[in-house]
Design goal:
Order of helices and strands: EHEHEEHHEEEEEEEEEEEEHH
Radius of gyration: 18 Å
Number of strands: 16
Largest sheet: 9 strands, antiparallel
Structural class: alpha+beta
Distance between the termini: 21 Å
Amino acid sequence: MLLHIPNVLTAEQVAQFRSALDQANWEDGRKTAGHQAAKVKSNLQLTEDHPVAKQLGAVILNTLAANQMFRAAALPLKIFPPLFNCYRDGGQFGMHVDTALRYTSQPPHRVRTDISATLFLAGPEEYDGGELVVEDTYGTHAAKLPAGHLLLYPSTSLHRVNPVTRGARIASFFWVQSLVREDSQRTLLYDMDTAIQQLLVNVPEHPSVTQLTGVYHNLLRRWADV
């Protein structure tokens, strides 16, 4: 499932993030890449233990905890502490698949990467290029979202970041270990949850709401990996 979640951060929060990131010390992003990914990666990143990364990452996690759309789509069990990157001056990240397991010195220490997430912190008008291109069974999709918006996509998918030829593409990225490992099952549960929420608005007293809610939870009970 490829999902655009709008307005995860407010415009004021994005401005605060950008102010903090503008004063941070960035390092070569290849330090955090796997052996194969490092060959096609050219960007800047904050280290995991950078004070700014920890501070802003905590804000992101707190915000996501209250975001109903994110919770319904990701069904998060663990979230890798958010990282931050910057692409400029032709920086890019060639086609790759994310590492299956990510380790960090911070809790939760180890995350199976079921879902990849990119939180855009620069508006599309601020830079040329820099599209996040994801390939899945339904084709190739290019995303360049407004600042404060989040894109979720399966970590199993091939994806790349196109070269940035003007300005700077700044973003946060992280991974989610979901309660439900399989993307197709998560998609079915998300679609069912969305339909149930709409029924609650349109016909809240209809008996089908209770029946469908039961089906949802029985499927989640069957598929959840806890």
